[in-house]
Amino acid sequence: MMTPELGVCYYPEHWDEAVWKVDAQRMAECGLTWVRIGEFAWSQLEPEPDRMEFDWLDRALDILGSAGLKVILGTPTATPPRWMLDKWPDMLPVGEDGRMRRFGSRRHYCFSHRGYLSECRRIAELLGRRYGQHPYVHAWQIDNEYGCHDTALSYSDSALEGFRIWLQQRYQSISALNRAWGNAFWSMDYDSFDQIELPNLTVTEPNPAHTVDFRRFSSDQVVAFNKVQVDALRPLTDRPLLHNYMGRQLGFDHFRTGRDLDIAGWDSYPIGFLSDRLDASESDKLRFLRQGDPDCQAFHHDLYRAVGDGRWWVMEQQPGPVNWAPWNPAPLPGMVRLWTWEALAHGAEAVCYFRWRQAPFGQEQNHAGLLRPDGAPAEALAEAKKVAEELSELDPLQPIQAPVALIFDYESAWVIDTQPQGADFSYFGLVFDAYRALRRAGLSVDILSPDAALDSYRLVLAPGLAVFGQNLKARLAEHSGTVILGPRTGSRTPNVSIPLPLPPAVPGLDCQVDFVESLPPASRIPLEGGGSFIRWAESISGAASAIIRTESGHPALAGSQSLAYLAGWPDHGGWDRIIHWACESQGLEAHSLPQGLRMRDTAQYQFVFNYSPETTEWNGLRIPPAGVMRHPHRQKADGT
Amino acid sequence: MMTPELGVCYYPEHWDEAVWKVDAQRMAECGLTWVRIGEFAWSQLEPEPDRMEFDWLDRALDILGSAGLKVILGTPTATPPRWMLDKWPDMLPVGEDGRMRRFGSRRHYCFSHRGYLSECRRIAELLGRRYGQHPYVHAWQIDNEYGCHDTALSYSDSALEGFRIWLQQRYQSISALNRAWGNAFWSMDYDSFDQIELPNLTVTEPNPAHTVDFRRFSSDQVVAFNKVQVDALRPLTDRPLLHNYMGRQLGFDHFRTGRDLDIAGWDSYPIGFLSDRLDASESDKLRFLRQGDPDCQAFHHDLYRAVGDGRWWVMEQQPGPVNWAPWNPAPLPGMVRLWTWEALAHGAEAVCYFRWRQAPFGQEQNHAGLLRPDGAPAEALAEAKKVAEELSELDPLQPIQAPVALIFDYESAWVIDTQPQGADFSYFGLVFDAYRALRRAGLSVDILSPDAALDSYRLVLAPGLAVFGQNLKARLAEHSGTVILGPRTGSRTPNVSIPLPLPPAVPGLDCQVDFVESLPPASRIPLEGGGSFIRWAESISGAASAIIRTESGHPALAGSQSLAYLAGWPDHGGWDRIIHWACESQGLEAHSLPQGLRMRDTAQYQFVFNYSPETTEWNGLRIPPAGVMRHPHRQKADGT
Amino acid sequence: MMTPELGVCYYPEHWDEAVWKVDAQRMAECGLTWVRIGEFAWSQLEPEPDRMEFDWLDRALDILGSAGLKVILGTPTATPPRWMLDKWPDMLPVGEDGRMRRFGSRRHYCFSHRGYLSECRRIAELLGRRYGQHPYVHAWQIDNEYGCHDTALSYSDSALEGFRIWLQQRYQSISALNRAWGNAFWSMDYDSFDQIELPNLTVTEPNPAHTVDFRRFSSDQVVAFNKVQVDALRPLTDRPLLHNYMGRQLGFDHFRTGRDLDIAGWDSYPIGFLSDRLDASESDKLRFLRQGDPDCQAFHHDLYRAVGDGRWWVMEQQPGPVNWAPWNPAPLPGMVRLWTWEALAHGAEAVCYFRWRQAPFGQEQNHAGLLRPDGAPAEALAEAKKVAEELSELDPLQPIQAPVALIFDYESAWVIDTQPQGADFSYFGLVFDAYRALRRAGLSVDILSPDAALDSYRLVLAPGLAVFGQNLKARLAEHSGTVILGPRTGSRTPNVSIPLPLPPAVPGLDCQVDFVESLPPASRIPLEGGGSFIRWAESISGAASAIIRTESGHPALAGSQSLAYLAGWPDHGGWDRIIHWACESQGLEAHSLPQGLRMRDTAQYQFVFNYSPETTEWNGLRIPPAGVMRHPHRQKADGT
User: Fold this and answer.
1) Model's pTM, two decimal places?
2) In which domain, by residue range, is A608 found?
3) For labeling, which of A71, A320, C90, C502 is most exposed (least CB within 10 Å)?
């Protein structure tokens, strides 16, 4: 158990060296202890091939470390310098449209390119050799935001070559592949692995097995890319290695990169995400315009706690308006503090703000920092400082296992994304809606990978877990708490076909999905007693008794308090009923929190956060907008 | 006059051979008599170039035929095997974006490719030779769904080469082409046919004459492609040849392929079409979510009756949720029966369900069949069986000529699609709105090609018939019933220019279009007495007297009970007035059917169909949702 | 001071020579005095390389001139003939998608192509030599609608080559470029100019400095292209040279092409522009469907008066429905007259209608003319004739300097377009909203380039002037009237970075922008006392006193009656308050005109125009729809 700390992202190469020292002192004075540097500095570190310039970094480390700051050193592999393209002209990623992308921004590399991989190994080794034991380097970040800007998938020649080898290894023979993919359909059989192309630019949709295998391959490429640098650094340093993942990024399996790293960092931009990547009603988008979705941060905190096997950071915390969302409003005063505390309450070891000083040049010049471009304090600086002070007065926060587990699976996301069957069906959206309902009930949640231990969770949910392994199936069937499967759970085999017997096919649950249907936005299927199914409904049969029915009498939730199947995508009201039923089954206390109010438990405390723009009363408390309350369990709040 | 029959689409190559016999027996038990096979099985029939494997097909035919089923054998040319690309790497279609498409789905060929044409001739001959006189092969299907997935147009080198030759044959000299196209405009003159390119990727829109000629050329390529297989099969078989057309597919002239075939099949997906290709109000889309548009099926039945010169089938009938529309709800119980009866009432010789058993693999694994993937009956099986039973108790249905003719012309569709002049102006949409109004009035309709005989139709409509041949013009002017032209009828010459004198220029109708205007969705021009023009209005002048006027006094419908011109696109209310006026002119009975109720006459019976989700009362009848009533003309109903 | 005249665009090459004479006589009879010809006739003038055919043009000039018409002769460089591509296959423009465009429409050339430039010089010289002193050629038009169809930007190899040279000239050394662009960000440093590519097809957004420099370069290419023809013609003719600019075309700096020309023409399509390129509420789009936006024409008149340094024409005036907007309704009767008078009241020397006779062939066959395709008068002919008659009875209109100046800057448009920071933030839209508010207040406005003299304007607005030169800044700070800056004024340096000190940094205005935010459409920030900020708000600090505040107390407009800063994008109500405050500060009369009513002052007259579809009462006047009233200042109207 560690006391969590605060930090910041810093780019010494953007500023006159004269200001570094002042910056370092101001960071320390603000109560920040971590500083991340170096992640995009390849052209400063190696201005020409093999001509290294480490001096400036030496000096920066010295100045920062001398001020008492601990440095996270980034490998600069997300931004290869321009000269790299002279060595490897074909290292650039290729879009689904078949066009090679160009130099001039970032992430301009293909994960499959062997030549670029060797360059990454080289720069990681050079950095590791020089700084692996450096007294001020306390952690390493590898690359930056894998998969961001849709870069997990590249349709390059390198990818094609790699994909063919990957398929050969997976299937051994082309006839095995033809069988596995069901290539008898539409005469899609191949005679050799060399005939297989990437699944873009087909006349109509390609075989979903083809697409999903390409998603798996592409994920493996990210894992391997990361591993190359891990392997280069491990012998040279004993400091923890981490990566900063991006929110709602499903391009690769984070659990698998996570296994090779020590800490999972993630980059939390609550307002940007609500604007550009979350499903929410127009009224919620307006209500939470300056606060972000009340559950998005918590969801990712819980996810990355799992990815990091307990050790996780917020590597980049939004401190003000950003530059990249369709619209970029400023946070409500107090929200930077609230977001920080939400992370801490979820067990973050560190929360680092991105970035120290707003850059007046380049792509992100409209991205706020803790300082304005002229060095004056921006709004967030005081809030960061306040959290630092509050932290210093607090005992270390002790995480606890949550009563509820929610299973999250990247492979299922790829399967559903490949054949959503309804234009607005998103695996992430379904799981996130379940999570939101759990939060509205005031529950703390652990997110689990499909092969994580189920421990003693009172409630386990596995919505949309399309690929449902036999092992997990057996464990869930025997689990002692309440398990809720569906919709779509177990709907595909690993070869992306419909399993026989029909899903969910779980021991102890006499129920099967007869057929499924997707529904357009204006349509809904009302449930008896309140709430509706939206987007998706399944017709199920079997002896499992209906716990909730649709108004026309079909089972909507069927089974028992041990194991139940949910036959559709519930709306807000539907989810609330299901969660309350499950909590009642388990004797768990389920709240009905006011809109925008959220809770999170640590061992000692219950935290209450107010995401709404008004003072909110609840349970005798009056919580101001952006308010954070913390009180010992079962007791009254002791602060705002 | 034949008794209509039911059938099913089957893919023996998808299933273990052991199950074929059981499948065949179950089909027969259900009352199905036709089974279509083979259409996508090229890689099973010819796994390597020139190595044929007919044995499995022999056995499948034997098993199906022995069970009493009649086989429609498909040529597999919609899915060339992967090895074909090694022989003809440039046979793939090229999109409007100039990108060649890839192997990995279906319809991956360019209609203009000479090499692929020779392959199609070869496989058709091989099949014809082996199965042309086979006792169980009772019909042939050529290819599958020409034009589906936007494949009628290909911007390939083969197409370019063919297009230049086609132009040379049409215009003989480049100066004739320059004159015909009006290339004096914008200095677009060509010096030789070799300079002409395909009309994609221009800076702004290309010459409409250029585009329309490319549409004509592309249509001719489809006709020629089909003809190659017809010519290969004719000497080898005396069984009827057919093609299964796709709904709302305007990429080529179906009347012209139809002339080379014996039967027109079409693939009817009522729910999919309402979701992905029909204009309908949001409230109608919701109301008919599980039933499909009440007029879409009937329209295509009437269209393909014309394409097949009286002989037509539903080759693929939707039996449950499909996989390919944006949203895919399940049919209301009873709709599969209703759809089947609507087809039969329109004179279908056969209705085949697609498909027998839902495939658990490949692109269409979410497409329902009569059986579930595990072989258990799906919802539709019982409905198909019920229709089979009902059919067996019924005298053969005797078609009659409808009192109303609606002219449909693919060339006019291309002309209007090339220069719609209003973003939401669609030729199909205009004709379909006219058809809907005729159906709301309870009328049976025949759809005619522009050169079909006009017979003794009491009412003839030719809305949007942009290219209006002199021959038809003369015949319509002399026709004894009520003829309604317009809007846009006769608005373009065959060279896609404005004719002089100005349209419609029909003898006996003293009226001309002075100018036209298109209207955005929020705008309308009210008609005196009810209804409005939407989308389109024309200012007409001349001595023809106004039958209906706009509220500002301009003629909206002008002329006489013999020949009238409609000067805009009426809304629902406007169309109803026009149809009722025309019926009154002709002493035809025009109903005002309740929403969702539709009728169709055969010689003996009047059928009434209820597409609405509620029981509907009309004329003393109470018709349940999805209800089908059939009663002798002028009598009370005898069943539901 | 000249008496303004009317004219028309004519294409003799489209018509049988026999009709030319009649056409010329009818033009003259209508009161037209100008006729533009030749602009797209290259293939008629030079059917083969170097084989000139001037005879037809000689005859056309003779016929037109003999009828008393003055000819504007166009250079045909917007439509190079097909044979040109055999000489210069790479002269075609390349889209942002990297695809080369094709022959078959117009504007199919890249401004950067040296070979095509030499052809343009050649044809201009040939024309200049033959017609430079021709008695009937009274003016020259160079090319047609630069930048239309998004052609100002081309991503061709010629452009790439030119861009590298342009950058080298601008920055001299690559390290200077790296510094200026801030390439330390994301390791974007270049080692040489040869490494720089065009800013398309990057993984995520390119450096804004890179993009803006490409916009500047592209604008310079247009200026240079135009200059080549100017330089070719000047020695050969003493007649004025002009170009016909397109509405809302921001692809290049019109002020800079304007300096090389004598007259600025522009092409005014009020109904087309409202449909396809203006921001307006749905209700306004409906209300002004047949009239066009009440301010769009006036805005461009004022803009092109500045571009032409006082000498400007409407070169193409919409006379009826056009063919190119999403929807193309017909004008309300009277609007062609109203639009013409609005132009004359703004000081147009001539208004020419496009086109004489509607072409029955080619891309624009649905574009109305003064005559129908059959030569009969179209609706607009009588309105044109009426204006000609009215003009003949009127003293020459004497322009006056407006009391209000609005600064317009193409470079700022590029900067904001490159990083709008809010999805719906448009520089043009912001300036136009300011203009609309000035018009609602009944004010006449002069639009100024940033380096124009500020003279004695009582009110100067510079909204969104992102790049705010030191010279202008100093002049505005000292200006004696009321100056309103902001939002975003001065927010970027010429190198497209955030300036230090923070903006607006104007002497005499103690105020700075602390941070900015963009707002989605549903969001607004109410102002105390009425009106709101929409889309954009800035948090400002400093001693400048708040003139208007937001409801939460932040300054919305701050400063003094001399110099104020506007910290957001006001809505209709907000702008009205600001304009009325400014007018009050200056003792200027500010009206609150009824919706659709607009005014414009000349030295002698006040014109009142009614753009609304109903008779409108105001100030004792009753003005019919499309009505134009003209009365001596401060007196009652004398006509409708």
Assistant:
1) 0.97
2) 601-632
3) C90
